[in-house]
Amino acid sequence: MAVASAVIALFSLAVSGVTLFFTQFRGPQISTAIGPTIEIYYPSDGGLGVYVPATFVNTSPRTGTVHRCGITIFRKSCPDEKFFMDWRFFMKLKPELSYAFDAPAHAIAVVGTSSTTQVLWFTWRCFSTPELIITEGEYVLTFHYWLGADDKPHSDHHEFSIDQPTHAQLAEYKSNNDSTTVNLLLDNRIAANRLLSDAESRSLLDA
Question: Under CATH, which architecture does the 30-190 domain have?
Answer without folding.
Answer: Sandwich (2.60)
